[in-house]
Amino acid sequence: MSYEAVIGLEIHSELKTNTKIFCGCATSFGAEHNTHVCPVCLGLPGVLPVLNKRVLEFAIKAGLALNCKINNFSKFDRKNYYYPDLPKNWQTSQYDLPICEHGYVDIETSKGKKRIRITRIHMEEDAGKLVHSGNTIKDSETSNVDYNRTGVPLIEIVSEPDMSTPEEARLYMEKVKSILQYIDVSNCKMEEGNLRADLNVSIRPKGSDVLGTRTEMKNINSFKAVEEALEYEIERQEEVLEDGGHVIQETRTWDPDRGVTLSMRSKENAHDYRYMPEPDLVPIITSDEEIEAYRKSLPELPDARQARLESEYGLSSYDAGIITSSRQMAEYFDDVVAAGADAKLAANWIMGDLSKNLNAEGIGIEASPVDAKRLGEMICLISKGTISSKIAKKVFEEMWKSPDSPEKIVKDKGLVQITDTKAIEAIVDKVIADNPKAVEEYKGGKKKAIGSLVGQVMKQSKGKANPQMVNELLTQKLG
């Protein structure tokens, strides 16, 4: 039998606040265990939480950027469950009246554009962190608890089960990450747990509209793991059904070293959490005027920015998509163009040599030794014919090591392009005389032979001859 997958994601994103959601403890990552804690986030008797206003602001901005309706009235609830990393034995979250509902994002898949609906976005506090002695909870002899993360503000972005392939799930999570970074509400550092997802997946016979039994994989924190975990779990469920078995509703964990999912515990339903309104926090009332003010404060978002780069500069959909994949790269591109650079050349240099060097050194574009203004100035030198594209690569490498302007580097290194026809003609004549075989092949109909002659001219001119002039002179002289 042929099956299809039904996939939904619950993305948890830590918000970029200095202090926790209900107390003044720091949210910074990497502190010594159990040092960023206080009676409030430890849930000691007699304490009262107070909502961090910045958390509400960031949640509303995320909702607006993800095309959600912002609710004027929302409230917090207690989600009751017992686990070592939850000191109060409940998590303060939102249940029936979340801050945001009914949103969507559009993703570009290998089969075209697809809309993924968002059910809700709600605010909640993070739990602590279990520090296992082994690689996973399944192979650990001991686990300790670090409560530093307890009370760190989260938004949970719950999708509809609109995805049917692991690729779509990855693309959806990448798009959400990009949007959250654009609006600067989360660092989205997946290696630090800033952004992670619970994956819900079931399978059903192709063409059926009846949902199968789903399993959930918790706290997946890389795009690669999202795809690999879903691929394995879909295959596992298919094998269970083909063998005549039944998929069990359960929570599973992903073991990246073995490339398998492992059973952890039976999966709870919402009623198992015994939700109740949080009595220590007042309801949240947000006016339409406040919501509109937050909307106006949002930057240009990825989809709108991509459309602008395509229409204004004629960039391809692919190039514009790469450039706008992060806000830092998009702003860098705009600054390069503002320095006078041709937009298409700017895109090529940013996606090419610049990205190559950034990746080699493991740094982001915001830390690039070559700032946008200097790259723009260098591209202008190419457009003016002062340097060739080949020489520009040498100039760029010098700019990577030196703070000097591209004009100074070109002057100091003697890299100005030769555009004197007589000077180039002398080199062309010598190359023709020294390469009779290539000349004979060209005259015999092998037009590609001119490429080796061009290469020889460029070599003898140390890359400084104008390539267009070289081609024209060779074609003219060879008839």
From TrEMBL:
<feature type="domain" description="Asn/Gln amidotransferase">
    <location>
        <begin position="331"/>
        <end position="478"/>
    </location>
</feature>
<keyword id="KW-0547">Nucleotide-binding</keyword>
<dbReference type="InterPro" id="IPR018027">
    <property type="entry name" value="Asn/Gln_amidotransferase"/>
</dbReference>
<dbReference type="InterPro" id="IPR017959">
    <property type="entry name" value="Asn/Gln-tRNA_amidoTrfase_suB/E"/>
</dbReference>
<dbReference type="GO" id="GO:0006412">
    <property type="term" value="P:translation"/>
</dbReference>
<keyword id="KW-0808">Transferase</keyword>
<dbReference type="InterPro" id="IPR017958">
    <property type="entry name" value="Gln-tRNA_amidoTrfase_suB_CS"/>
</dbReference>
<dbReference type="Pfam" id="PF02934">
    <property type="entry name" value="GatB_N"/>
</dbReference>
<keyword id="KW-0067">ATP-binding</keyword>
<comment type="function">
    <text>Allows the formation of correctly charged Asn-tRNA(Asn) or Gln-tRNA(Gln) through the transamidation of misacylated Asp-tRNA(Asn) or Glu-tRNA(Gln) in organisms which lack either or both of asparaginyl-tRNA or glutaminyl-tRNA synthetases. The reaction takes place in the presence of glutamine and ATP through an activated phospho-Asp-tRNA(Asn) or phospho-Glu-tRNA(Gln).</text>
</comment>
<comment type="subunit">
    <text>Heterotrimer of A, B and C subunits.</text>
</comment>
<keyword id="KW-0648">Protein biosynthesis</keyword>
<dbReference type="GO" id="GO:0016740">
    <property type="term" value="F:transferase activity"/>
</dbReference>
<dbReference type="Pfam" id="PF02637">
    <property type="entry name" value="GatB_Yqey"/>
</dbReference>
<dbReference type="InterPro" id="IPR014746">
    <property type="entry name" value="Gln_synth/guanido_kin_cat_dom"/>
</dbReference>
<protein>
    <recommendedName>
        <fullName>Aspartyl/glutamyl-tRNA(Asn/Gln) amidotransferase subunit B</fullName>
        <ecNumber>6.3.5.-</ecNumber>
    </recommendedName>
</protein>
<dbReference type="InterPro" id="IPR004413">
    <property type="entry name" value="GatB"/>
</dbReference>
<dbReference type="GO" id="GO:0005524">
    <property type="term" value="F:ATP binding"/>
</dbReference>
<dbReference type="InterPro" id="IPR006075">
    <property type="entry name" value="Asn/Gln-tRNA_Trfase_suB/E_cat"/>
</dbReference>
<dbReference type="GO" id="GO:0050567">
    <property type="term" value="F:glutaminyl-tRNA synthase (glutamine-hydrolyzing) activity"/>
</dbReference>
<comment type="similarity">
    <text>Belongs to the GatB/GatE family. GatB subfamily.</text>
</comment>
<dbReference type="InterPro" id="IPR042114">
    <property type="entry name" value="GatB_C_1"/>
</dbReference>
<dbReference type="InterPro" id="IPR023168">
    <property type="entry name" value="GatB_Yqey_C_2"/>
</dbReference>
<keyword id="KW-0436">Ligase</keyword>
<dbReference type="GO" id="GO:0070681">
    <property type="term" value="P:glutaminyl-tRNAGln biosynthesis via transamidation"/>
</dbReference>
<dbReference type="InterPro" id="IPR003789">
    <property type="entry name" value="Asn/Gln_tRNA_amidoTrase-B-like"/>
</dbReference>
